[in-house]
Specification:
single chain; eight-stranded mixed sheet; 10 helices
């Protein structure tokens, strides 16, 4: 079973008008509001939906194709209402004070092109000969994706909506791969747990039987270091009143971080692709930042971590390869012992990059261990049980540098014993070996 017939992404951009009357954008969305409200009014009067469609399309002051899309969207809202009105589902409310998004097909109501300088230019026409032209603004990631869609025969630039939000005009553009399909997480043979931190991402691959096939920790210390350098630079500029260049500095920082995350996400998807029918499982961190309060300096560091950006990049790169993604509740994944005979939870189990269970003595690289717990949490949520786990393979560490190279961390730190019992080795000897190797990859206590 497949999740989608194609990999579709919605990209958000700001619009900077250069030609035409910018008031045309407002007038177009006012007419879109009238179309939507008229469909709702005629339905309330008992009109047949085919008659509603033809009447509104013939009398709207918009590009015909745009009106058709708006009528279809309004009828879809009414269909939902009629299906649920017995459950006290309210009729779609009329838009009175606010504008309504203008919905357009590419090369009909709007068009995108790439100019000689590499900028993405737009043209929005709410009716014939009433256009607005300009340049799209957006994240490097979204601009990169829409350029790829415009230049590739495998991609289609689809429907866009023009909306007025936070006192600016924005264009939400959908791009779809014509043939790409994404597998269902339910069909996965290999489950990849992901633990994202401020300076590394840990991955652990497990089968449905609970066997850990492989694991890796990809470090990216340059992101944390460079972001701190840019923070200091901006603070010094603010102290001497040099705010004119603050935007330039922020842009440099954003571009650097985006480039690094792009490379890290490529490393992640390449590593994941080696396994049979994988699904990538993330921790659901959407509510994490609301609960963070560790003091001003630590709050700044944690609230600015690129969790969402890295996850989004991995997700869409994986989708291009047909690999699905999922998420789990992150509660206690960093504190819980992964040994199924123990599963002890205690904050004191983790100290920086070192995990040592206070109950059974299990030791491991803290981030790799958290990635394993993410997989276990997925099994628990999906099937209500966790496969037995007693042993883990050695963890491999690689470090991504600003130059783009991805290298082994060091001659010792690349290999780290888990400290669990292995056949032919006593638990005491294994734990002793782990303690020695732990010193090469985790900070020494004290």
């Amino acid at each position: 079973m497949m999740q989608d017939s194609g990999a579709t992404h919605t990209l958000s951009f700001g619009v900077t008008p250069h030609e035409g009357r910018s008031e045309n954008l407002h007038e177009g969305c006012l007419e879109a509001r009238r179309v939507r409200n008229e469909v709702n009014r005629l339905d309330k009067e008992g009109w047949d939906w085919d008659d509603i469609h033809d009447t509104v399309v013939d009398n709207a002051n918009l590009v015909k194709n745009t009106t058709q899309l708006l009528v279809q969207k309004a009828l879809k809202e009414l269909e939902t209402y009629h299906d649920h009105k017995d459950e006290d589902w309210g009729r779609p409310f009329p838009y009175i004070d606010e504008t309504y998004p203008m919905r357009m097909n590419h090369n009909e109501g709007y068009a995108l092109t790439i100019d000689e300088s590499g900028d993405v230019r737009f043209r929005v026409s709410y009716k014939p000969y009433n256009y607005v032209k300009g340049v799209l603004r957006g994240s490097p990631d979204h601009l990169e994706r829409v350029k790829n869609a415009l230049n590739s025969d495998s991609w289609r630039v689809g429907v866009a909506e023009l909306v007025h939000k936070h006192n600016e005009w924005r264009l939400h553009v959908s791009v779809t791969h014509k043939t790409r399909t994404v597998a269902s997480p339910d069909d996965a043979e290999t489950v990849i747990g992901v633990d994202i931190n401020e300076n590394c991402v840990a991955l652990a691959a497990m089968t449905r039987n609970g066997d850990v096939l492989d694991s890796v920790v990809i470090e990216y210390p340059d992101i944390k270091r460079v972001r701190h350098e840019f923070f200091i630079k901006r603070k010094r500029m603010q102290n001497v009143g040099q705010t004119a260049f603050e935007t330039v500095v922020r842009t440099e920082e954003r571009d650097f971080v985006h480039d690094q995350l792009h490379k890290v996400s490529r490393d992640v998807t390449r590593w994941v692709s080696q396994f049979t029918d994988p699904v990538i499982v993330f921790e659901d961190l959407k509510d994490m930042r609301d609960s963070i309060d560790y003091g001003t300096r630590m709050n700044r560091r944690l609230h600015s971590l690129p969790f969402a950006a890295l996850r989004e990049m991995v997700t869409y790169k994986a989708a291009w390869g047909g690999i699905p993604t999922d998420n789990v509740d992150p509660k206690y994944t960093s504190q819980r012992c992964p040994r199924t005979e123990c599963l002890h939870i205690e904050r004191g189990n983790r100290r920086r990059k070192r995990f040592k269970c206070k109950s059974c003595g299990f030791q491991d690289h803290a981030d790799r261990k958290a990635a394993v717990c993410v997989v276990q949490e997925w099994f628990s949520e999906q099937y209500g049980n966790v496969p037995s786990l007693e042993t883990l393979p050695s963890v491999r560490k690689v470090r991504r540098t600003a130059s783009g190279l991805c290298e082994e961390a060091d001659s010792h730190g690349a290999i780290f014993a888990s400290g669990v019992h292995r056949h032919g080795t006593s638990a005491q000897d294994s734990q002793s070996q782990a303690r020695e190797e732990l010193k090469t990859v985790a900070p020494v206590e004290g």
